[in-house]
Amino acid sequence: MRVILLGGPGAGKGTQAGFIKERFSIPQISTGDMLRAHVKQGTELGAAAKKIMDEGGLVSDDIIMGMVKERITEDDCKNGYLFDGFPRTLAQADALKDAAVYVDAVVEIDVPDEEIIKRMSGRRVHLASGRTYHVMFNPPKEEGMDDETGEPLIQRDDDKEETVKARLKVYHDQTEPLIAYYSEWAERGGEGAPKYVKIHGIGSVDQIRDQIISQLQYL
Predict the structure, then answer these.
(1) Could you list the active site residues?
(2) Phi, psi values for residue 178, rounded to 5°
């Protein structure tokens, strides 16, 4: 089972990725994790990536693709894999296709922007323990205070409404075009064409999980 997971920030991809990994016994492949591993091991790709990162640049798609191609040959990928946050752009999707790295399914978790803003901007955190709350969906007993210590909760910068809106803009500009790319390819068919699965991402975590698994298990 080889899967690409698409969806905006806060759409629940991380949670659902955990269920997909477990159900199909496949690893989650994150470009960030791969980069860190290569840099740590001092590989040729890692050294090239480190030089670019140290200069404040963006690691090229060629280097990322080199890491991806190497990673999917490892033993834990024999049952498949789940790409996490990759491809992020049309250029990366084309590079995957050109390298004949095909997937069985592309799963889009579709959540409207206003719902994402509500979900993310409502998060509150107790920093010392990492306990999280939500002003609407999981409020603390006393507003703004941690249930166990009574200490103040904070809103992380990442969860502030303006930050969430900025992240959504990047997603719409760079990553959303992949929805058309993969759904059209699925419709056209041909070599390597994936199944395209669109899931309405509002509802309980379990409901969304069950929808995804039921679409994937008979591929």
Answers:
(1) 13, 88, 123, 156, 167
(2) -65, -25
Helix axes 205-216 and 13-24, enclosed angle (nearest 10): 50
pTM value? Answer: 0.87
Distances in Å between the alpha carbon of 47 and those of 35, 37, 70?
10, 11, 16
Cβ neighbours, 10 Å, residue 33: 15
Two structure tokens written together for 82: 């789940």
| Residue indicated by tokens 């002003």 | 135
Examine the pLDDT at 219 and tell me if it is beyond 90.
Answer: no
- The full length of the chain comes to 219
Tokens 């719409």 — which residue?
172
Closest by CA position to 165, among listed 114, 213, 207? 114
129: Cβ–Cβ under 8 A, 6 or more apart, which residues? Answer: 146, 148, 149
**Residue 58 CA from chain centroid, whole number:** 19
**Joined tokens for residue 196:** 């395209």
No. of H helices and E strands in the chain? 9, 7
131: amino acid identity, one letter: R
pLDDT band at 212 (very low <50, low <70, confident <90, very high): very high
Rounded CA-CA distance 153/201 in Å is 27
Percent of the chain past pLDDT 90, that is, above it, reads 91
CA distance 80 to 77: 5
Contact assessment for residue 149 and residue 128, using Cβ atoms and an 8 Å cutoff: yes
Tokens of 7: 């969806």
User: Could you tell me the end-to-end alpha-carbon distance of the chain, in angstroms, rounded to an integer?
Assistant: 8
